[in-house]
Amino acid sequence: MKVNEIQDLIKFVSKSGVSEVNLETKEVKLTIKNDGGKKGKGGEAQLLQVPVQQMMPQQMQAAPIANPIEAAPVTAAPAPVVEAAETVDDTSKYIEVKSPMIGTFYRRPSPDKKNFVEVGSEIKTGDVICIIEAMKLFNEIEAEVTGKVVKIFVDDSTPVEYDQLLFLVDPS
Asked: Which CATH number fits domain 89-170: 2.60.40.2890, 2.130.10.10, 3.30.470.20, 2.40.50.100?
């Protein structure tokens, strides 16, 4: 939660006449109390607490302590890495379609419509293959290559980063 959002929330609580507001998200627990004009404050809301909790470090510490015996199977990890490298070699003949922007990935134009493309779909240059929503704007992403969709890497309605792999296309 950004500082200006917290300030706006404090102003809203002051004007609304509410005596107390509690807001809790994954990152922030926030309590705002409005003293209603007591103590010479003129009814201004005050921020009481904003503890930030980082969940990831706690989880990372808890796993090794809870099961120290599981350290032995971790040594078997190099085998899957080799398999992943072989998979990359096999896909070298495919063209990667990457996200041109940060936003939310959609496979279809609206919830009641069918997906733009599926695995096995034939696409041509200029065909709309997905939509990426960024700042309330829905941007149609067009294919820059002709071929057949081999793999889709992103689930519908999930966030994507710039240059994130979306599709693999077989140009042959």
From this structure: 2.40.50.100
